[in-house]
């Protein structure tokens, strides 16, 4: 009954209809109909009464769903309702005449209370309506705000999806980069090993080239030394042969001059003692013998010159061999340097 007194009536409705509606509302609470302006406690009580009237057992879940309140309120006020119900069950039932009299008295009291409430709270109703209009405006604004927030949430969800996609792409790119980095590190390690092997081969090649160069230089030096010795020997032999040839030529010239002088003297003597044939013949024979001797000496000198030429050819052949040895040594050194440059370029 107290919940009915707290309801605020509409000032535009007739008093009789308001009384009838109020009594209907109070009587309809057993059917689960809630007034427009009630508290959680009133709604919980009404819901529990309605469920009990339907033959059911009021539970927190059923009461919460029908009263449209929180679980805490449903639990709290349902406990209170049960306590009051238990307290009412201890008293005997109210007789019907008493109940009818009470209902009539209550109706009269309710009509008077409603009239008084209408007179006292007309201005409050107007204020409440104004507040309701403001609340509706605020609700419209909040609805627009909710729509904007929903759009913003949709945009943020789209951005989040894009961010997730970008993050997945970044993870994939990071995985690819990690794989490429591992491949690069493996390739670098392999190249370092190959470089170390190449360096070792280069050092070995340099060492071999150095040894080959030293051997080539030593061979060239030996060949040059032999060539110089052979050339010196050849020069000495040529000088000796030339000196001997010059000496022989000088002797031949002197002998030829002597022979000519003797021949001239013989001719002069032959002319002077032309009469002495025997003497002339002897001188002539002597001159012929001297000429023959000179011819023999000249032939020996020619043989000596031929032998000297042969020795000179041998010396030249030896010098050619020395020159070829030096060329071979130079070629070996060039080849070694080429191998060294090739190893360095690798």
TrEMBL record:
<feature type="coiled-coil region">
    <location>
        <begin position="277"/>
        <end position="325"/>
    </location>
</feature>
<keyword id="KW-0238">DNA-binding</keyword>
<protein>
    <submittedName>
        <fullName>DNA-binding protein</fullName>
    </submittedName>
</protein>
<dbReference type="InterPro" id="IPR021104">
    <property type="entry name" value="KfrA_DNA-bd_N"/>
</dbReference>
<feature type="coiled-coil region">
    <location>
        <begin position="125"/>
        <end position="240"/>
    </location>
</feature>
<feature type="region of interest" description="Disordered">
    <location>
        <begin position="1"/>
        <end position="41"/>
    </location>
</feature>
<feature type="domain" description="KfrA N-terminal DNA-binding">
    <location>
        <begin position="41"/>
        <end position="152"/>
    </location>
</feature>
<dbReference type="GO" id="GO:0003677">
    <property type="term" value="F:DNA binding"/>
</dbReference>
<dbReference type="Pfam" id="PF11740">
    <property type="entry name" value="KfrA_N"/>
</dbReference>
<feature type="compositionally biased region" description="Low complexity">
    <location>
        <begin position="19"/>
        <end position="32"/>
    </location>
</feature>
<keyword id="KW-0175">Coiled coil</keyword>
């Amino acid at each position: 009954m107290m919940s009915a007194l707290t309801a605020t009536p509409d000032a535009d409705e007739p008093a009789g209809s308001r009384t009838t509606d109020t009594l209907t509302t109070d009587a309809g609470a057993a059917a689960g109909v809630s007034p427009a302006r009630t508290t959680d406690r009133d709604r919980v009580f009404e819901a529990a009464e309605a469920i009990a009237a339907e033959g059911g057992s009021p539970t927190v879940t059923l009461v919460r769903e029908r009263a449209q309140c929180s679980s805490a309120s449903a639990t709290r006020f349902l406990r209170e309702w049960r306590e009051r119900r238990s307290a009412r069950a201890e008293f005997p039932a109210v007789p019907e005449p008493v109940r009818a009299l009470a209902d009539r008295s209550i109706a009269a009291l309710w009509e008077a209370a409603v009239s008084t409430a209408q007179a006292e709270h007309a201005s409050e109703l107007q204020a409440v309506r104004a507040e309701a209009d403001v609340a509706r405006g605020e609700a419209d604004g909040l609805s627009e705000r909710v729509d904007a927030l929903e759009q913003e949430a949709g945009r943020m969800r789209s951005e989040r999806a894009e961010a997730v996609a970008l993050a997945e792409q970044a993870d994939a790119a990071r995985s690819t980069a990690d794989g490429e980095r591992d491949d690069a590190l493996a390739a670098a390690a392999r190249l370092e090993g190959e470089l170390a092997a190449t360096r070792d081969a280069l050092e070995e090649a340099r060492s071999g080239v150095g040894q080959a160069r030293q051997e080539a230089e030593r061979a060239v030096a030996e060949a040059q030394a032999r060539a110089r010795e052979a050339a010196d020997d050849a020069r000495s032999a040529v000088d000796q042969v030339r000196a001997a040839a010059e000496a022989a030529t000088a002797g031949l010239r002197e002998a030829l001059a002597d022979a000519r002088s003797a021949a001239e003297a013989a001719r002069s003597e032959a002319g002077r003692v032309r009469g002495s044939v025997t003497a002339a013949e002897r001188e002539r024979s002597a001159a012929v013998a001297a000429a023959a001797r000179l011819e023999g000496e000249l032939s020996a000198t020619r043989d000596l010159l031929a032998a000297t030429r042969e020795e000179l050819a041998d010396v030249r052949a030896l010098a050619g061999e020395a020159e070829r040895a030096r060329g071979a040594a130079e070629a070996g050194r060039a080849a070694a340097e080429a191998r060294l440059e090739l190893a360095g370029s690798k």
